[in-house]
Amino acid sequence: MSSSAVHSLWTTAAEGKLDKIPAPHIEYAQLAPTLIVVGAAIVGILVEAFVPRRSRYYVQVFLSVVALAAAFAAVVGLAAGGYGTTKAHIAAMGAIAVDGPALFLQGTILLASIVAVFTFAERRLDPVAHGNKVDSFAAQAASVPGSDSEKAAVKAGFTTTEVFPLALFAISGMLVFPSANDLLTLFVALEVFSLPLYLLCALARRKRLMSQEAAVKYFLLGAFSSAFLLFGIALLYGYAGSVSYATIADVVSGSVQNVNPALAGTMGNDALLLIGGAMILMGLLFKVGAVPFHMWTPDVYQGAPTPVTGFMAAATKVAAFGALLRLLYVVLPGMSWDWRPVMWGVAIITMLGGAVVAITQTDIKRLLAYSSIAHAGFILAGVIATNADGISSVLFYLGAYSFVTIGAFAVVTLVRDAGGEATHLSKWAGLGRRSPLVAAVFAVFLLAFAGIPLTSGFSGKFAVFKAAAEGGAGALVVVGVVSSAVAAFFYIRVIVLMFFSEPKADGPTVAVPSPLTMTAIGVGVAVTLVLGVAPQYFLDLAHSAGVFVR
Amino acid sequence: MDNLIALLIAAPLLGAAVLLCGGRRLDGIGHWLGTLLAGASFVLGAVLFVDMLDRSAGHRTVTKHLFSWVPVEGFQADVGFQLDQLSMTFVLLITGVGTLIHIYSIGYMEHDENRRRFFGYLNLFLAAMLLLVLADNYLLLYVGWEGVGLASYLLIGFWQHKPSAATAAKKAFLVNRVGDMGLSIAIMVMFTTFGSFTFPAVLGGADGASSGRNTAIGLMLLLAACGKSAQVPLQSWLGDAMEGPTPVSALIHAATMVTAGVYLITRSGAVFNAVPDVQTVVVIVGGVTLLFGAIVGCAKDDIKKALAGSTMSQIGYMILATGLGPIGYAFAIMHLVTHGFFKAGLFLGAGSVMHGMNDEVDMRKYGGLRKYMPVTFVTFGLGYLAIIGFPGLSGFFSKDKIIEAAFAKGGTEGWILGAVTLLGAAITAYYMTRVMILTFFGEERWKHAKTPSPDQPSVEPAAETHGAHDEPHPHESPKSMTIPMIVLAFGSVFAGGIFGIGDRFVKWLEPITSFSHGDSPVGQWTVTAATIVCLLVGVGLAIAQYGRGPVPVVAPRGSLLTRAARRDLLQDDFNHVVLVRGGEHLTRSLVYLDHSLVDGVVNGTAASVGGLSGRLRKLQNGFARSYAVSMFGGAVVIIAATLLMRAV
């Protein structure tokens, strides 16, 4: 950047006549889903402040579920009003897109979140402590693990009901993330949903040190990746002179030049575009857990409270892939020749890496973490398709995958021994003999992960691979199928372990959950089977929602 | 009227469904229901026959489209029927003989506790066989083809508590599978060649198709015919199939199912006519089987197996006739029908003899039975005269015509075929006379058949008990058994004359099979005279050998040929050495390959993936700093790659 350009950058704002800042025009109705969730989160904080401790849990659960349901109703209302198709447009002064993919993903996030909140609210699994029913979260997050204050907090029957507003904040960020239509909104949304998640990860009631370690790792690496993202945003701004998706896309395609005279020195510099674009991609790939930005995943999935893991694995992935899709399909289609080969490589090592490393895992939560990495690779294959089917198949896959994931982690919360959840695989041996129903349900989820026909996993995988093959990524499909075969090994291995091994004498017990977790698992199984047996309606829905507005 | 065609099949099908699904509560009426529905089918057939006769020869074909079976674009399969003179002939034979054998079985199977199931299977067979001959396309024909195979399997193995019956059923099923494969391949080739498998499309298009295609279709159809009709080289199952109840042998393994191959070749005449080379193969197969079956029939002491050899041989005549082309089709079918009468009659007679002889099948333990079973003797005797071609009886007209047609083929070929058929006639006369003498004439060897045992010191037979060691009490069979035999005997006597005199049958079939006289180098009467001479030679030899002295109860060792013939001319040994051993070797080497090579590759891959997994896992060391380095490295690589892509 030449010195005169830098000079003009500094002086333009000062010398120019400042207009009055116009009041932004905000379409509140179209932003209703996000606004409802944010509002409920704020109310939730007030509840923490003003409602007596005894009632907080009930008020928070009620508030969260109602808010999420209302937000989902708003999404459905918008979709029914045609905002997903004909009336799709950019709202809030160009910051938020209201279109098919956004609404579809918001709906998916909200439904998954409702189910996840059910698992958050479960209070029957842990034994009653000092006459108080307890959930999966620490009695008092601020107390040092093993200290007297922790014991006092447990004895007093404290519960961290803040998890509900925290989750609502995270959800609000996730709702904005896939619909963000400029880079700054994207970044703000990212932080809005990341920060509460860091906190939630640290809140496990059992194995608190591990939980806190996971949270710190997640926070450090998350901050690291945010820095990359932010730097990438700055570089793209330097290239295009704007943070708006549409403008950047126009500059990339060459139809608009000289957007911002103040940046004349840097605008159109392809190096900025390429480096900036790659860095933003990297930030998003971190969130979806793609290799080599995946290393936080196993540690965090293992350490976080299992309901949070399920929530994170499902909803974060949906939001992050939504943002990734929009970035690649709206902002950077003009340079798809540049990013496609790179994404090819990322997809291949993600699929293979996730599947291969999962083989030697001995902890069920880590196993599912690697499984989620492999699935990120499969979804990336659909993203790379760069055709209409690519969008719709990814949308479908995300919907199918999120319910399987939450259901699977919900089952993990049920298998317990004296130390809490019994996550070591050896303890699952013979589970099918002791608790056939739980084992059978888990087997259904595993088969769905493996992509066996008549489960949603098969429909989703078939859709993304078909899109990828039609998009000219045949080799990617081959790698995907090979990884699926490798992955099938460790999924089936767990089934074999559950049904064909002798139960251990000191094996875990299966806790009988409240209707909340039962509902979560039941919804997971139902969605898995419905999308597996009769996926056409939902495929059509995803297809009709699969057009980005620009 | 054409709606009746579907009913024709539906009646026995309904019977099969009701009898097989109805359970034990139908035990009391099952056999009546089965017989009634078979009879109903015959009546329907007769009505349709009368209706057909009302129309002129060119307008007798009726088609009936029932429903669309596989309505896929580019692949249309329909369920439709075609009733013409050819299928009408079969319908009357199948339902007529079938009904008679149902009646016979009422008596024959009286003491079997599974009689209802037996009738269910018989009805199933009738339905499948009718479907086979009435289908208007090859795919539907294939359904019937498999259906009769299934019924045959179930009925051969009806007494599955006997290991021999179970094995025989399995053998028949497996050997037939080879033939069925031929039919399915033929249908596939038809579809790729003509884009359809309806009779009009295939037969009408055969002339225009390449000779390679026609050859493939023809050979595959011949393979199918060999399997179903027990022709060399797929003949080995028929002898063993005699393990089934005798009515089954009469209906399925003599009169109807085994003739399906003749039907198939006649029906597909246009394909065979287009490729004379394949016709030559057909003729060879027929000729070889003709002699093969006859020789086997000479050596067997088991009355049913002797008759089975005869069946094989007679069908050889028919196949040979079909191989002659338009000269022979009509005669093949005519012999098929007369054979249906007399061979069914012979089997029923054999069943009647066995019924009276404690299920003894060894003819060396019969003898002099004509006094004890007069009706059986007379009807069996008429069947015997018919099959050897005694002038004036059915077999005379039909077999004589085939021999004439064989000569009419012309050239050296004609002479060879003529000689083979004449030789066959002589052998037929020989072995049938042998059966006749051993069973009904001579010494009453069964009186000495009882082996004295220390447990039963008394020579006095226990009254009314039927143990294996008891001396048999030959007696005439009940009316339900004799009446069908009498009816069939009428057919054996008169059918040939009715068909043959004035070429009635040829004219009846001519619109379907076409007909040509050929040019015989020898006169019609010369052939007839030669046939009669052969007949007399055969009969004379048999009388000389068996009629003049006592027949040993235990078979003598016999010549090499006799011993080979007793072992079905070593067919099973051949199959065992070549196919079974070969198959076992193939399997073993494949298993070895699977264990060493395939498993090796699979296990090796699994092990290397596992090892890789273990190493990669170490990268996940739990330190956030290492993770950050990995991310940074990834970012560098991605950025570098992106820039590189642009540079390249």
Q: Could you characterize what this model shows?
A:
The complex is a heterodimer of chains A (about 550) and B (about 650). Helix content of chain A is about 70%, strand content about 0%. Chain A is mainly alpha-helical and about 550 residues long. Chain A has one domain. Chain A has a three-stranded antiparallel β-sheet with strand order 4-3-5. A two-stranded antiparallel ribbon of chain A has the order 1-2. In chain A, helix 12 packs antiparallel against helix 15 and helix 17 packs across helix 20. In chain A, about 60% of the residues are buried. By secondary structure, chain B is mainly alpha-helical. In chain B, about 70% of the residues lie in helices and about 5% in strands. Chain B has 24 helices and two strands. Chain B has a two-stranded antiparallel sheet with strand order 1-2. The chains are: A mainly alpha (about 550), B mainly alpha (about 650). At the A-B interface, helix 8, helix 10, helix 11 and helix 13 of A face helix 23 and helix 24 of B.
Helix content of chain A: 55-70%
Q: How would you sum up the major sheet of chain B?
A: 2 strands, antiparallel
> Separation of termini of chain A?
31 Å
**Average pLDDT metric of chain A:** 91
Strand fraction of chain B equals: under 5%
> What overall form of chain B do the CA principal axes indicate?
globular
Strand order of the largest sheet of chain A: 4-3-5
Low-confidence stretches of chain A: none
Shape of chain A: globular
* Gyration radius from CA atoms of chain A, angstroms: 23 Å
What is the gyration radius of chain B calculated from CA atoms?
30 Å
Number of strands of chain A: 5
Which features does this protein show?
heterodimer; A: about 550 residues; mainly alpha; three-stranded antiparallel β-sheet; two-stranded antiparallel ribbon; about 70% helix; about 0% strand; B: about 650 residues
